[in-house]
């Protein structure tokens, strides 16, 4: 019996989704800690998570938890990184599509 290996695009998509769910969870955890006066997630960790293709999870977390929406650098970093990451993912998708569409 052989193990089935996912194609690379599917594997990367799963990693992207899981990572962004984790970033969303970090925003929720930090908001909960802020409300309760507990230990907070360091801002540096949040920024690194956003830069490493976690902007979608951060964007959803900002809206869902109403957290880090006015504080610099989050008020400009999240939308900027989201746009950059969307463009990068679209470019990768176009490159893959163009490689597979030519004979």
- Give average pLDDT, whole number: 90
Q: How large, in whole angstroms, is the Cα Rg?
A: 17 Å
Beta-strand portion reads under 5%
Distance between the termini: 34 Å
The succession of helices and strands, N to C, reads HHH
Largest sheet: none
The number of helical segments is 3
Computed structural class: mainly alpha
Helix content: over 70%
| Quantity of strands, as a count | 0
What is the 3D form? elongated
User: Which residue ranges are poorly predicted, with pLDDT under 50 across at least 5 consecutive positions?
Assistant: none
Set down the secondary structure blueprint.
Elements: H1 8-36, H2 43-65, H3 74-101
Helix pairs in contact: 1-2, 2-3
Structure description:
The protein is elongated, with a radius of gyration of 17 Å. It has helices spanning 8-36, 43-65, 74-101. The termini are far apart. Helix 1 (8-36) packs across helix 2 (43-65) and helix 2 packs across helix 3. It contains three helices and no strands. It has 103 residues and is mostly helical.
Name some characteristics of this structure.
single chain, 103 residues, mainly alpha, 3 helices
């Amino acid at each position: 019996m052989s193990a089935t290996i996912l194609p690379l695009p599917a594997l990367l998509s799963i990693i992207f989704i899981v990572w962004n769910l984790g970033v969303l969870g970090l925003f929720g955890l930090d908001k909960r800690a802020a409300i309760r006066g507990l230990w907070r997630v360091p801002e540096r960790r949040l920024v690194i998570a956003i830069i490493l293709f976690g902007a979608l999870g951060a964007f959803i977390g900002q809206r869902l938890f109403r957290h880090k929406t006015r504080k610099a650098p989050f008020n400009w970093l999240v939308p900027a990184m989201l746009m950059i990451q969307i463009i990068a993912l679209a470019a990768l998708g176009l490159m893959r599509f163009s490689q597979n569409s030519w004979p």
